[in-house]
Amino acid sequence: MVKPVMNAQTSHPDIDMDDVQGLVRFGHGHLSESAFLLLAIRDPGAAREWLAQTPVTSARSQSRLPELAVQVAFTASGLGALGVAQSTLMAFSEAFTTGMSGDENLSRRLGDTGSNHPRHWRWGGAAANTPHVLLMIYTLPGKLGDYLQQMLASNFAAAFEVQHTLHATSPGPEEPFGFVDGISQPMIDWKQSMRNDPRARDHYNNLLAPGEVLLGYPNEYGLYTDRPLLHPSEAPGSQLLPTAIDQPLQKDLGRNGSYVVLRQLLQDVPAFWRFIDEQSGSDAGRRDQLAAAMVGRRRDGTPLATLATRPIAGLQADNVFNFDDDPRGRQCPLGAHIRRANPRTGDFPPGVNSAVKRLLRTVGFDRENAAEDLIAASRFHRILRRGRAFGSRLTPEQALSKPPLQEAQEERGLYFVCLGANIARQFEFVQNAWIVNAKFAGLPTESDPLLGNREPLASGAATNCFSQPRAGEPAHCVHDLPQFVTVCGGAYFFMPGLRALTFILQQK
Amino acid sequence: MTPQSTFMITATIGHDRLDELRTLLATMNSAPGFANPRNTLIPYWQFNNLHVARFTILQANTNEDIRSHGVPPEIWRPALCFIGDIDGDPETFLAEMVIRAEPGLRRIFSFCEGFDPGTDLLEWLVRHSHRPDANYVNWRGRTVQQIREESVLSQVLASEIRSLLAANGNHPNARQLWHRLQQFMQEEVAAGRSSLTAPAPTPIMWRIRDLLHLVLIPLAALCLAPLIVLALPFYLRRLRQLELSDPENALRADPAHLQALSAQEDIDVTNQFNVFGQIKPGRLRLFTIRLGLLLLDYVARHIYTRGYLTRIQTIHFARWVLIDNNRRVFFASNYDGSAGSYMDDFINKVAWGLNLVFSNGVGYPRTHWLLKAGARNEMKYKHTLRRNQLPSESWYKAYPDLTAIDLARNSRIRQLLERDNPSDQELQEWLSLL
């Protein structure tokens, strides 16, 4: 039995990085070539054998950067195909076992309606084209082809059918629309040094409890997220699993594992820049201004919100900001993409400084910040992004060139990847309550300017506008936004810890 | 001001008639659980004083849970529950409903026991009515008519101001704009294209009752104060004992049950929510929940009447009703956003308030001194809530696409438009709302 090592200060067990898959800790940025393989299991025996001999990259820091990283994750049907017992599967979260598609109600909540509907997806939209296994391969430049060839030459073909190979482009600073991306990520509090006291969380900070990303550790509530726990006497082979920290008699199949959300997003870059160009009368300055308002950052990544004068834990350099000084969205519109994706609010936005104030706020008597209080406690809805872009790069200038360039027609977009321990409270919440929600932060009716599907509300109210609040005058509204982003594939996966992977591969 | 009130009619459903009744109620809907205002049973579209209404079948899905306390469950037969939130008093409303919807109501209630073709419908409805033990109204005095008029107003003003600003090269200042739009609205109203009805006088009897309620309850508490002080240590000791020993629910909701709930969520921007659970055995728990509901009802009636209930600004209407000889509690609400964000909002903002009332329900996650922990135990709380949640057969809301925040904004726009001499600051605020 592996005994958890206790961290002296907090009595939390240290996180065993040898058992965590590398992607949880690293983006593998230097491994600029990558492909995500969506696999169906042909022969479970061969699949087990192949996976067992594949060196899966752990999160341990190495003195030399690795030349290759391989990560493995499974859908619920994939775990079933490998022989994981139904009762064990059902102990994973409801969101994971249900999956991203196949439930109209979930699709409605995620904005996967209209042209985003799973029936149009290339993969993951139906049981038949939902992969069992996600194999993520990252190599040094120029090495991916060789690796894939070598891999396919082994007994791989007997084990798996490759449903899709998602080839990513080498990660540049910019996402396909041309904005510097990947600036902001939650900083995982690996040392678990944060006090589990809600009173310490009135103000926003960027630290995140490991249990928000990894199963088997305390989350932001100081509690353990549901995951399969196995009794050693009832589950043969489970002795090799880590012990459940909260229930020492049980083995923890979830510990050091994480859920992975993968969505393939097509980004219509020419349509985006043409629309912005039309709205700004082809004036370059106004064009940049409108595009920046929609994103919440300028193309070079500079936030529209002013930088905070005081440090914010877990944030550095140009990313040290929140929206506390801009409650009405006059610097950064309330509906701007980055403000929706992470409103950067504490538990009592914009923070309370005395016990009396806290009490008054708690019972609702202090109304000064009532509007900001609509979107409170962002910390429960954070995601760790590990996405990569695909398709050729098209600058805004190229996107606007007349006559249109040949390459403008090519497909490009993002393989959106995010990690978390609670799909429903993290990815689904962010997508539903913040991105898609036409009433986000009390806005009259508009959804995310980049990601919105432009579907009207139930009684016909249009959501295809974007408003920029102004002091002392009506908000400037842009109307009739076309759809810029279309979902064309997606699934939920479980990325097990390495001991859990070994256990899974021993199931029959 | 026209005060809001509620109605709630419940009746046991006849043996073996449940499925048929469900089928009938589903004919009212345009989407799962979502009423078409022009359905053939209850012509909701004809009512200009009905905010929200729903038909729910009260089923004790978690009836067996009370066995964890060593108590055998009481039999509960499925009952039909018809509730609504209205402007004015329920007696007048029920009479109006009988006039407008008698055939439909008769068809629906014919599935209930003790209802036959000869029954006097109005008398039967009154006899089967329940008053809530606690009731919350987002904004006291805001009528359906007002909501609809103000919604039109804000749309008309928003488009008029944009055409004014687009037409005028030199921007008129805020006060000029305000004057211009005030004049514009007067013309609209005069031409009959819009209306802005003045509030009706507050019924004098309501005002007297409200005042008595305001004064008498604290007065009673004051009189009982010495007794309370004496009893408090014993109460707290026993409460703490129970908190440490009461069993918690360890089950997740059944996936099929979750699907049934989920199918009717997020069709409008507002959702309906029902919880039907059992109260823990013993007098202390019943006493605690009754006291909690009394307090809740008092503050909802006298303090939280202007768009918020403590930190929650997304509830339109909510009620708590003890039924079945105080063995069970029914909670029904209308809230903005998805169920996930509703639950998270509650956990993160008012766990203490939830705990005060619902910790007296069977299966609720363990509390510390009544207010702490409990709902902060996120996953246990969500599982327990979902297990005790019920779908509605048919739910109606008079102002689709509008959230409580929208309604407050529209009212503010009107209020500032009708102001005699607004300050510069108010004018700035007004413009930014449009």
Attribute tags:
heterodimer, A: 508 residues, alpha+beta, four-stranded antiparallel beta sheet, 13 helices, 15 strands, 21% helix, 17% strand, disordered N terminus, B: 434 residues, five-stranded antiparallel beta sheet, 46% helix, globular
Structural notes for this entry:
- The complex is a heterodimer of chains A (508) and B (434).
- With 508 residues, chain A is an alpha+beta fold.
- Helices cover 21% and strands 17% of the residues of chain A.
- Chain A contains 13 helices and 15 strands.
- Chain A has helices at residues 44-53, 76-81, 86-89, 94-98, 104-110, 144-159, 269-279, 284-295, 337-341, 355-362, 396-399, 424-436, 498-505; strands at 33-41, 68-74, 133-139, 160-168, 187-188, 207-208, 229-230, 251-252, 258-267, 384-385, 388-390, 413-420, 466-470, 473-478, 485-495.
- In chain A, strands 9, 10, 11, 12 and 15 form a five-stranded antiparallel β-sheet that branches.
- Chain A is globular.
- Chain A starts with 32 loop residues before the first strand and ends with a helix.
- With 434 residues, chain B is an alpha+beta fold.
- Chain B folds into two domains: 4-141 and 202-397, no CATH class; 144-198 and 403-433, no CATH class.
- In chain B, 46% of the residues lie in helices and 17% in strands.
- Chain B has helices at residues 18-26, 90-109, 121-127, 144-167, 174-190, 204-223, 225-245, 255-262, 283-302, 339-358, 378-388, 404-417, 424-433, and strands at residues 4-12, 29-31, 34-35, 50-58, 79-87, 134-137, 270-278, 315-323, 328-336, 367-368, 372-373, 389-390, 394-397.
- Chain B has a five-stranded antiparallel β-sheet. A four-stranded antiparallel β-sheet of chain B has the order 1-5-4-13.
- In chain B, helix 4 (144-167) crosses helix 12.
- The radius of gyration of chain B is 24 Å and the shape is globular.
- The two termini of chain B are 26 Å apart.
- The model of chain B has no long low-confidence stretch (mean pLDDT 95).
- The interface between A and B is large, with 52 and 51 residues.
